[in-house]
């Protein structure tokens, strides 16, 4: 962990903890998921997928045009899934659960797009 990223680390740990507690309440699963989400935030910071601007310590990650396209695609997938879950499974799950699933799907899809691009770039450089 780098000292210059301390505000980012603290803010993302709090965000991870609050989200986990809201979804899983005060359980061991919430504690576990806090560290999973925090680990994903650390992966985003140290992956090289984004440029880093320390002039804004709470939001140091900057996206290029490729990152913005990945974000847009992931957001579209998450919003459509959330709306479908809410509309068609509304009697089975609550709106909070549908929203939580959408947030998790957003990060999973975004992560998958970045990994896929990284693998393709690696293979084309060989």
What does this molecule look like?
The chain is mostly helical and 126 residues long. It contains four helices and two strands, in the order ααββαα. The chain is globular and about 50 Å long. It starts with 5 loop residues before the first helix and ends with a helix.
User: What share of residues is helical?
Assistant: over 70%
How do the SSEs run, as a string of H and E? HHEEHH
pLDDT average, as an integer?
88
Summed up, the helix count is 4
Q: What's the shape?
A: globular
Low-confidence stretches: none
State the separation between the terminal residues, measured CA to CA. 31 Å
Rg (CA only): 16 Å
> What class would the helix/strand composition place it in?
mainly alpha
DSSP, total strands: 2
Strand-residue fraction? under 5%
Q: Tell me about the biggest sheet?
A: 2 strands, antiparallel
Biggest β-sheet: strands ordered side by side in the sheet: 1-2
Short description:
The protein is mainly alpha-helical and 126 residues long. Helices cover 73% and strands 3% of the residues. Strands 1-2 form a two-stranded antiparallel sheet.
What's the helix and strand layout?
Blueprint: H1 6-24, H2 28-46, E1 51-52, E2 61-62, H3 65-88, H4 95-124
Antiparallel strand pairs: 1-2
Helix pairs in contact: 1-2, 3-4
List the keywords:
126 residues; mainly alpha; two-stranded antiparallel ribbon; 4 helices; 2 strands; globular
